[in-house]
Amino acid sequence: MNKTPAAGAPPKRAIDIVNASLKRRYARERRFRFIGLSAVILGLSFVGLLFADIIAKGHSAFVQTYIQLPVHFEAAVLDPDGSRNPEVLARANYQQLIRDALRTEFPGVTDRRETRTLYSMISVGAPTQLRDRVLANPDLIGTTQDVWLLADDDIDMLVKGHIDRGLPENQRRVKDQAVGWVEQLEAQGRIAKRFNTIFFTNGTSREPELAGIAGALMGSFYTLILTLLFAFPIGVGAAIYLEEFAPKNRWTDLIEVNINNLAAVPSIVFGLLGLAVFISVFGVPRSTPLVAALVLTLMTLPTIIIASRAALKSVPPSIREAALGVGASPLQTQIHHVLPLAMPGMLTGTIIGMAQALGETAPLLMIGMIAFIVEIPSGFTSPSTVLPVQIFLWADSPERAFVERTSAAIMVLLAFLILMNLTAVLLRRRFERRW
Amino acid sequence: MSTTLDEMTVRTRATTSAELASGRESRETVGDVTSANPRMVCRHVDVFYGSTQAIKDVSLDIGKNEVVSMIGPSGCGKSTFLRCLNRMNDTIDGCRVTGSITLDGLDIYDKGLDPVPLRAQVGMVFQKPNPFPKSIYENVAYGPRILGLTNSKAELDDIIEGSLRKAGLWNEVKDRLDKPGTGLSGGQQQRLCIARTIAVSPEVILMDEPCSALDPIATAIIEELIDELRSNYSIAIVTHSMQQAARVSQRTAYFHLGDLIEVGETNQIFTNPKHKLTEDYITGRFG
Amino acid sequence: MSSLPASPRQDDLAAGHTVRRYDRELKTLRDIILDMGHRVIEQVQAAVVALIDGEEIQAYRVLDREPRIDYLSLDADEEIFRVIARRQPTAVDLRIVLALSRIAGDVERAGDKAVRIARQALALRDQVSAVDNLLDDDLQSRFRQLDHRACCMFERSIEAVASFDVERALGVFEDEPELFGTSDALRAYLSREDLKGFKPYQVVCLLTSAHAIERIGNHASNIAEQVIYVAEGKDIRYRNREILIETLRRKASA
């Protein structure tokens, strides 16, 4: 107080007291806002850092190094009897062609060790590449073609600059000699980086340059489809029953508490449950989308039920009364009026549950999804793995080339998650009604 | 809201136990509860929510071509009673109704009676206008459609036009039947709800404070409508506005803490009520 | 006194509203009418003194004070309009307002009667100089008796209005036969052929005064009827008084 009131002065008005404390109150408010804002910025910057790191590491996985070599499709090797029989062509020794091409390209290499180094520049997947070409076009036999052949992962790393050429030879995976060859080829313009279709079309592989996420993606796809088919009807049905029809008593209270608790159970417990019940008792084939979907259904059900109940609760009771009042039966009331209004909320909950299921790893490890499966799954009961488990597996692999593939797979997974969450947001926007 | 309701119930119980101690279970209704030409007859109706009694031994007739208004302070049970008349209370857990309520001589709480068609016979208009979030046409068409009242589109169209005309809404909405019902003004929405109710040809229409969310002009239009509807339907209306009860009804029932205190001709209730509680309430001496 | 012995009325019928301002408005209205009533009683007494004792000054005072009562009756009307417009009274409140409106009319007309008596008192002695006791003792006592009956009734009716008291209102009805008896006797006395000492115009003055005094009693009855209308909710005008009194008494004692 800057002025001391004189004796007998009129009593202080309330507004003066308010004004005196106003400054302090505003300061407190500003402090709070600042703290909140910095918390948000901190969080966002961590997310940004994570994304930047992943993208920095992973973006190079979307291109792949190819080496151009003139390959002579030697008829004597491929089709000795000249029958053009596809079975014969399929079993022919294409590796021979590549080795011949390499030797012709680098005629000075004769030493056995050097030869092996030379051969290892080209991926073990290259023969398959040639075979497919020949099978598609048998006329190639007997001709010489310039073919872009898949480079080995080490060469790929070298070309992409992940292996430092300045290091002493014994500290890097690529020999000086090979570096020399690469530089020679680069000078001739025979090394190029092309879009990595293999990454999207192949299953996993021990060889990084042949490893792709198609198997895991398909596995995730089948799993999610099944999870959706199981979890959505069960979840929505349970929510409608509990919210609209079930009597409110101690039993339904208990069920409600348990559903809420279930949502908080560590997901690996569901995996153990799946292993113990679905695989051991019911004999569901392990490591399949079917069993994964069953486990993930259990895991996402609480989320869907809770979200659906919230959506049902938010439908004003006046709508139910209106429908009942004109003579609709309780089920008609639900289906004709309540459900359409609650659907966006239910779908949002379901999509969030699905996103959760898409990103889940732990329970799937328990039911054998961790198996090394090269084949792209063809159905709900074929052995498969899923994207997050694939990421987990690749992250464990020692090869340098798997690092960037891991990051790339994470990028794909994140893209799907963001897409799903975006759908949820859009659905809510689109169907949000005011009444 | 719920806390005040609870307090109300607690107070009800206290009064009841005091009355039990004095040997009186419920108050006698003053006035004639019967109607010359009854459509719905309620006798000794008790309603319990769990262990609390919301309605105590209420008997009341609702006559043909008559508007019966129910007034009383909040929590007096008038809405509860209204909701008994089309078994809307069935949807509330732990709600129990005893006594007899008949519609044209048929006990509506009979075990064999299905409440779903009953609610079409005894329609209801609610406090807040609650059109379905659909088009105006669909709002009115919903009832006849699910009840299978029509065989053809033309018939349905006739019902819709007729209902909207009776509700005094036709001229305002005939050019925009496909527009959402929620886009209408409050008073129009309420008339749409009335149209929706009369589209299923009810015999009795229950109105639960139909004008409490409306401005005076919309209220006047609804009141005029109620007066017109009287020639075809029996109407029971719960209202907080005593003036409204005085204006629209032929008979008035005053509820107080679950008791039906007094029933009588509206003229008599508003000029010379017999019971002190009624008089105190309508002259603004309550509490 | 109430129809509901189980719930005895509190002190005042017009009080007890949740909106206390409403109570005050009704009280203001009733106070105006009570004020009028008391003024009218004074007026009547003064006029009768002027008539009997020939005190002219009292007669002039009555004439002077008359407009004040008229103004009060205008005030009462205004207050009644206001209450109806703003409060939309129902039930007992509606009856109170309606009854007070009628009572105001009756009180105002009773005031007019006082003026009429005062005028007659002046006219009676207009052409007669220095007559102190124009009226002989017999006539004086007859007039006093009539005045006493009428004023008693009027006073009692105003008291009844103060608390809407059925008991007092019934008392007013019970006095009626005596009032009519006294009045008839006085009229008969004045119309005697052997009446001495009065010129015809003086007889007319006396008859008119007697009639006016009787009318004050009638106004008192009307007021009492309105009090019963308020308290009982029944309009009892034009009913058989004896049966009415009996029913109401029986009800009150029950």
Automatic annotation (TrEMBL), chain A:
It comes from the Bacteria. Residues 217-424 form the ABC transmembrane type-1 domain. It is a multi-pass membrane protein. One of its GO terms (cellular component) is plasma membrane. It holds the Pfam family DUF3333. CDD domains: TM_PBP2 (cd06261). One of its GO terms (biological process) is phosphate ion transmembrane transport. Its main location: membrane. The chain crosses the membrane at residues 32-52, 221-242, 262-284, 290-312, 364-387, 407-427. PROSITE patterns: ABC_TM1. It is found in: Cell inner membrane; Cell membrane. NCBIfam families: 3a0107s02c. This is Phosphate transport system permease protein PstA. It comes from Thiocapsa imhoffii. The gene is pstA.
Automatic annotation (TrEMBL), chain B:
The keyword Transcription regulation does not apply. SUPFAM superfamilies: P-loop containing nucleoside triphosphate hydrolases (SSF52540). One of its GO terms (cellular component) is membrane. Residues 1-32 are annotated as: Disordered. PANTHER family: ABC TRANSPORTER I FAMILY MEMBER 17. Residues 1-19 have a biased composition (Polar residues). Residues 40-282 form the ABC transporter domain. It comes from Thiocapsa imhoffii. GO terms for biological process: phosphate ion transmembrane transport. It holds the Pfam family ABC_tran. It comes from the Bacteria. Keywords: ATP-binding, Nucleotide-binding, Phosphate transport, Transport. This is Phosphate ABC transporter ATP-binding protein.
UniProtKB/TrEMBL annotation, chain C:
Residues 33-120, 150-227 form the PhoU domain. GO terms for biological process: intracellular phosphate ion homeostasis; negative regulation of phosphate metabolic process; phosphate ion transport. Signal peptide: none annotated. SUPFAM superfamilies: PhoU-like. Gene3D superfamilies: Phosphate transport system protein phou homolog 2, domain 2. Keywords: Phosphate transport, Transport. InterPro entries: PhoU, PhoU-like_sf, PhoU_dom. Belongs to the PhoU family. This is Phosphate transport system regulatory protein PhoU. It comes from Thiocapsa imhoffii. The gene is phoU.
